[in-house]
Amino acid sequence: MSGEEEKEAVKQYIADLKKKIHYHDYRYYVLNEPEISDAEYDRLFKELEELESEYPELVTRDSPTQRVGAKPLDEFGTYEHSIPLLSLNSVSDEREIRDFDERVRKFLVGAEEEIEYVVEPKIDGLAMELVYEKGVLSVGSTRGDGKTGEEITQNLRTIKTIPLRIFSGADAGAPLPLLEVRGEVFIPVSKFKELNAELGAKGEKMFANPRNAAAGSVRQLDPRVTASRPLDFFAYGVGRAERKEFSTQWEVLGYLRRIGFKVSPLIRRFGNIKDVIGYHEEVKKKRDELDYEIDGIVVKVNSIEQQERLGAISRSPRWAIAYKFPAREEFTSVKNIVVQVGRTGALTPVAVLEPVQIGGVTVSRATLHNEDELRKKDVRIGDTVVVERAGDVIPEVVSVIKSKRTGAEKEFRMPDRCPVCGAEVLKEGPIVRCIGVSCIAQLKERIKHFASLRAMNVEGLGEKVIEQLVDRKMVSDAADLFFLTNSDLLKLERMGSKSAQNILNAIEKSKHTTFSQLIHALGIRHVGEHTASLLADNFRDVEALRDASYEDLVGIPEIGPEVAKSVLLFFEQGSTKELLKKLERAEVWYEKKEAGLVEEEKAKKVLEGKTFVFTGRISMPREEAKSVVERLGGKVASSVSKKTDYVVAGEEAGSKLEKADKLGVKIIDEGEFREMVTLPS
User: Fold this and answer.
1) Domains identified in the chain and CATH numbers
2) Which positions are catalytic?
């Protein structure tokens, strides 16, 4: 084969690879129905990267490898829309939408003429236009003023649901010479919450809402920042479409789906305005279940011919209108700021508001999230603020109207002790937490944890029983469980003498435990099951752990400064000392190591640094297998990676086995595992 023939063969192979990757991107990001594993996708992508690295002259702008890689810009350019991207007039009640229908019918003159409407959700995002030349994305721009937008092509390329090359073939037809696709960029609500949590943990400014987050993300001069944001895209229409004519909006949406775009599943078609109104109510009820913000529905005349006859007025079409939902943002004033202690001990500042109606609900309190957010927004007692209510989440203060300040407003400071129990608080990034073990605000959760399977394992002590014990003030901390009597339990609702005795027996049985389980049960911040096991391996008893210094703790592998500080602070609290005295009086027993045996135990860590993954069915309970591995110094992971040392394969092993084989991870059966950890078969 000559050099030219070889290059042509490589070129064709790269084209086939790109086509495969585009297809699997569509299956994964648009349909949410992947056909191959992540490992197989990564293999295809890596192969394409390697070939393009070897043949850089064959890299094209529609290659999946080019989604991110452009250099940061100094500023955005402008782009003039060939057909104006008009904004919509809006209505908010039934009378106004009926007036719209009446105007449409009058303008079209023939009252007997059939009018069909296509109804689409009004995504609370940013309108965009994508220009495709011969099926390849060439320009992406914002709406701007409707005539001219900002050219942000390199940023829009990073969004996985925007195809770099549109589909062609029997179902989609040949690529058009030129196609302008219009749609909305947004951030899903679940991803927005994750993004804000990440920003908050880093001490960076958080976004007020998903729309602000999307707007800030697409307008980054560095496309790598845009690529790191969870942006999504719904297509809803077309501008110019050379060599293609559509007769209806419904046909447009079907075509967009066929060529690879994500289109909202909520789109419907109706023959009368009454059904449109009914659907508006239906979607309004579903609104809070959706993973994206909508603030109404868009009603469009379906016929393109009728749309053209109706035309536009000023900046809005006569053939479409936004039928909005009730507002979820209002102005009100902050009467006070109080601190609420959550079930995990987090102290949250909450604004007490002058009551205001938002979306049909009276709102009198709104979250300020945390101290850092409160400072960034500079919310003060007496301020006039914008309050937003989204879904069933507690309303939040979005911003302060500083122009309305009089000078009488008061700044708020977070307390340095828990307002409920008086214990010290621990600041972790933006979050301030109470660490008191008897804090009533978090007592139910602490007792649930204390009694759980992997802690003290009090069988039969369910959530409803714990709630009654706390609500009736029968326990003030977890240790009080050991002093309950039969007559105490019989006072609880739906509690018979047999059930009461079973619970008392379980509590008595739980007194005999292990040191690591007891440490885990105490609920020390940052001390989970694995860390509890590390501490138990390095200290002979609770007294030794209580008396440990910072240097003693950080000297243990895997124990960092944050965990060490948390342990020290926990044992300094008066409520902790009281809890430990009660446990001693209750005769909670665990085996203490003899002096010198701690070092000997460390030598038994035969699996130190090894990571195991279990797949399929094995004879021993999975939790027991995990406990064995951790006791011998190893770790158990839920998924296979290059860092996995062993995959233990039982009967009917699944995809983890296939992935382990591809990565070259050692695969063993249950018998080999038992031999490794010296367990009888």
Assistant:
1) 3-66 (1.10.287.610), 90-324 (3.30.470.30), 329-404 (2.40.50.140), 443-600 (1.10.150.20), 605-676 (3.40.50.10190)
2) 122
